[in-house]
Amino acid sequence: MEPFKIHILGCGSALPTLRHYASSQVVEIREKVLMLDCAEGAQMQLRKCRVRFTKLSHVFITHLHGDHCFGLLGMISTFGLLGRTAPLHIHAPKALGPELDRQIKFFTHDLGYEIVFYPVDTTERQVVYEDRSMMVESIPLEHRVPCCGYLITEKPSLPHIRRDMMDCYGIPMSQVGNIKNGADWVTDDGEIIPNARLVRPADPPRSYAYMTDTRYMPNLHEQLKGVTTLYHESTYGMDNLLQAEKYYHSTARQAGTVARDAGVGKLLLGHYSSRYEDEEVLLKEAKEVFDNTFLTSEMAVFDA
């Protein structure tokens, strides 16, 4: 099975602490590297997690609060100093486009590579990036500024060849592609070997939903049905429900409710308020609703 890994670079919220960096993640999927949000310090965390800078091709920004995008310009500048030549594709709310362009012109000179900006309409679910192996969609969220989450989905892969059957019927390796694409095999004696005997089913497609800063949305689960892994912000516990409602954030219990109602495989919590010195209280709260829940932490790695 091809890697589909989520690297946590930061899982804190807006107020800096000595325990957590602000929001940023890196996703490795089928030899590609994507970044979800780019908070202050993200490039230092990227070095620590040992994901190669050169493989990072796309950055997806959820909204224009500093704890989700203050690290972007610094990372862009560093890539230039490192001699990057490949374009860097940035997907974000459209208001970031002209501001980012202004800052790049002001702070960097002869960057050496192209920044390609794609405005994202945070009010609609839409495909914001797609290639042969995966698709990234925006999911509208409800926060104090325009905001969306992102859903990364693998496209179905081809079935697995049964090597024992290939050997049994003396099928040459040159036919692997045809058989993976559904062809039968005809022996020298004219016997037709059905394709179903020559392959094993393909791995089921995996998906990862990154749902950060949002108030509890009772219908959000309808957008996330059957997702393999869900990250949902859990800034507060129910002890601070009024704060969550005031600032358009969610509690850990509400995150668990979304995960349960969507029927996801597992839930990752993050975007912790600085008032919690021990996030176990948030984990306990979410697990009361959805048991297969995990706390994120810096440098943790999860399979989608």
From TrEMBL:
Positions with a binding annotation for Zn(2+) 2: D67, H68, D213, H271
EC annotation from Swiss-Prot or TrEMBL: 3.1.26.11
Matches recorded under InterPro entries: RibonucZ/Hydroxyglut_hydro, RNase_Z/BN
Cofactor binding, per record: Binds 2 Zn(2+) ions.
Pfam families, A to Z: Anti-Pycsar_Apyc1 (PF23023)
Single GO MF descriptor: zinc ion binding
Catalytic reaction(s) noted: Endonucleolytic cleavage of RNA, removing extra 3' nucleotides from tRNA precursor, generating 3' termini of tRNAs. A 3'-hydroxy group is left at the tRNA terminus and a 5'-phosphoryl group is left at the trailer molecule
Required co-factors: Zn(2+)
Source species, domain of life: Bacteria
Active site: D67 (proton acceptor)
Binding site for Zn(2+) 1: H63, H65, H143, D213
Keywords: Endonuclease, Hydrolase, Metal-binding, Nuclease, tRNA processing, Zinc
Subunit-level organization: Homodimer.
UniProt cross-references to NCBIfam families, sorted A to Z: PRK00055.1-3, RNase_Z
Function: Zinc phosphodiesterase, which displays some tRNA 3'-processing endonuclease activity. Probably involved in tRNA maturation, by removing a 3'-trailer from precursor tRNA.
Family per record: Belongs to the RNase Z family.
Entry-linked PANTHER family: ZINC PHOSPHODIESTERASE ELAC PROTEIN 1
Protein name (Swiss-Prot/TrEMBL): Ribonuclease Z
Originating organism: Prevotella aff. ruminicola Tc2-24
